[in-house]
Structures are given as C-alpha cells and as structure tokens.
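Lab notebook, bench 4. Still working through the backlog of constructs that have no structural model yet. Next entry is a single chain of 309 residues. Request: give me the structure tokens for it.
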Amino acid sequence: MTQGWNASDIPDQSGRTAVVTGANSGIGLVTARELARRGARVLLACRDERRGKEAESRIQAAVPGARVEFAPLDLADLSSVREFATAYPSDRLDLLINNAGVMALPYGRTADGFETQFGVNHLGHFALAGLLLPKLLDTPGARVVSVSSAMHAASNIDIGDLNSERNYRRWIAYGRSKTANLLFVHELARRLAASGSDIVAAAAHPGYAATNLQTAGVRMENRKAAERVFELGNRIVAQPASSGALPTLYAATAPGVRPDSFTGPKLLGWRGAPAPSWRARWTLNDVAGERLWVASEQLTGVTWPGLRS
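Model written out:
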C-alpha cells in the first residue's frame, strides 16, 4: 500500500454507482462524500429520512454538483431491506459499502426478532448484499466492502446462540457481530472465486474514530457518566471520522485490493493511513464461514442464486 494514502488518492469514480449504508453521519457520511467528490453516483442508504436528507444537503454543499440521493433503508427490518432492493434505481452497482452499524446496545430485538447487534450489523447487510447480487454480477469490477472492527477480537460467533439469548453481554455481542462481518466477507470471497466472478469482497475497520457510535448505547440508558467518558475519548484519543473512513475508501477504490483482505489504520490498528490489519484466526475458518452463511440464509430467507457453494 502506498505510504500515506489519503482521500486525494481515490481514483476517478465517474460513471460508477455506490450504495453506502449509514451514510448520514460519521465514517459513512465521509465515505459517501469522498466517493461523490470523485464522480460517483451515491445512494445514501439511511434509516432516518430527516437525517438522510440532511446528509444529502451537506454533501451537495461540500461538493457542488455531487450526484447523491437519500434512499430509505432500515437494516433492522428485512421488509425495508427488500423494499430498498426492489426500488434500487440503477442497472449497475459498482460499490456496496456495508457501513451502518450499532455498538454495545442494551438487549433488544429487530423487527424480525433477531438480537439487534447481530441483526443490524450482520443479517441486514447479508440480506441486502444477497438481494443486490444480480446488480453486482452485472457490473464489471464491482466490490463489496464490509466495515468490521478491531473489537471482533472480543469474541468468536456462537453458531448455537447467534442471537445471544443465553447470556447477553453487550460487548461480547458486538464482537460476535463484527466477527460475523469478517466471516461473511471470507465466505463471500470464497464463493465468488468458485463461481468465477471478479467481484472483490473485502473488509475494513476505522480504528478508533470519533463518531456517535460510541455514545449511542449509553445514551439510550441515560448513563451520563459513561457518555462523558466516551465523549472525552472521542476528543482526546480518537482520530477524526475523515481519517477513520480512509480504510473503507481504500478497500472500495484502490487498485489491487485483494479478496478477503482486511484494511485498517496503520498505527497499532488505532489511527493512521490504511494498511493491512490483523484479524483473529477464527475469522478465516472455512467451516465457520459456511455454517454462518447457511444459518444466515435460513434466518433471513435470502439465498444467493448464481454463486457456487
């Protein structure tokens, strides 16, 4: 990787179409803005219409002439995921950026009954990518980039308790969902290769970036002291969202990105320019990847026609 790679190194994206989930704030907003700056048409796939349209306006103000548009998507509701895929407005899809996520929330369930972190971070994106697969297959050089986290190291998945029903611990559940992101990329890359597809499935993580992800869970529970600690960490320790988005942008656009690669910040995985990132050995387990894939198809009802297992 080029030393000091930054947003100015993004190749020309004219004529390309991208979907960025969770593009209304944080690294998703930066990712969408920088892709639009380089000429891509970008769909801002967001749950909240007001915030999604505000993001659209912010990007258009920062990048005059930007081709961005809000599109409603609630990853916690599979009916919304299906509606998004049905209404998808283009014949091509060059970049699917699975960015949206939740972190360390109190126990909850999605509209379909899944534990919220597993349901949003993994199953919603699994279903979205599967439903959009025909568009990806029809687009030469397409990429799927899933945003994981160094916190995947907190826990492997438990295939017998994917919804963390036996003993819910918020950080363990978050780690499991981020492991699921990496296992999804691992298995998707394997299936794409077996099918002879040139789609690149890769993963990235932002290190410690200052976003609202850290404070959402404690704010839901009105834990003021914990909220202040996270806010302080964001100000003093974290790198800005503009830097945290660079690994995602690299994985999405840089030449030569390898399938099943994992890109993160260079300096101890916390901050700095994009570089290959360490990942737990369990995220490269073929058997675990296939078992999670089969379970995800069963839970979501979304299969992936055209891909060999």
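Notes after review: The radius of gyration is 18 Å. The chain has one domain: 12-300. Flag for follow-up if needed.
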